[in-house]
Amino acid sequence: MARTPHPARRHRRSLAALATGLAAVGVAVGSGADFSAQSANPSNTFTAGSLTIDDSREGAAIFSPADMTPGAPAQTGTVDIQNSGSIAGTFVLSRDRLASTDSGDPNPSPFANKVNVTVVDCGAFQGAAAPGCGDAGDVTVYDHATLASMSARLDLGRFGPGERHRYQFAAQLDSSAGDEYQGDSASARFVWDAVQADS
Questions:
Q1: pTM recorded for the entire structure
Q2: Which of 69, 72, 103, 199 has CB atoms 3.0–4.6 Å from 183's, for a disulfide?
């Protein structure tokens, strides 16, 4: 009488045959080459921009009006201010280190209160060509007020990279200055600042 295989043994043989079949299929599927592609962008460089000011009279006076008399025509001086950086900036002008000297009879007020100042933006350079001052293109930055009252920062606007403007300063002794102001003087420093402009 023939022996019938135990059911558990038949199950194990079926699993073994199935595993062998799947392995064979895997070998057949994995034996071919797969297409592939790659692209790269090397040497990416990240550099910060710069904001710098080129002052044509750096470290020196813009002008030094002398022998001023009440009501006489204004004396003038010019300076060129450039954004020599690589990013746009918002520029401002301010006055500091103000001092007045009283050399004679006591003054009713400091001499700087009798010096009237005007600051004009003559315009931007066109290449190497400087703008003219005293024409219709001038923009007044500070208008005939005293040197003493020039205490707030004056907004000069946005300068793009490489943009350069010429500024003309004028000073006149007020016609109300009396004899007590003879020989007196005042001094001040003008400061240019720039901050990164909004894009």
A1: 0.81
A2: 103
Going by the DSSP 8-state scheme, the letter that residue 109 receives in this structure is: S
**Please, are residues 159 and 83 in contact by the beta-carbon 8 Å criterion?**
yes
Which residues 6+ apart lie within 8 Å of 78 measured at CB? 62, 122, 133, 166, 167, 168, 169
> Helix, strand, coil proportions of the chain in percent (round to 5)?
15, 35, 50
**Cβ contact 52:84 at 8 Å:** yes
Q: What is the pLDDT of residues 11-62, one digit of tens each?
A: 555 545 544 554 444 544 556 789 999 999 999 999 999 999 999 999 999 9
- Six token digits for residue 83: 């954004």
Nearest to 120 by CA among 144, 151, 98: 144
Could you report how far apart the first and last alpha carbons of the chain are, in Å?
98
Distances (CA, A) of 139 to 38, 68, 135: 58, 25, 10
Of residues 185, 183, 2, 192, the one with CA closest to residue 105: 183
Q: Do 148 and 89 touch, CB atoms closer than 8 A?
A: no
Tokens at residue 62, please?
Answer: 């813009």
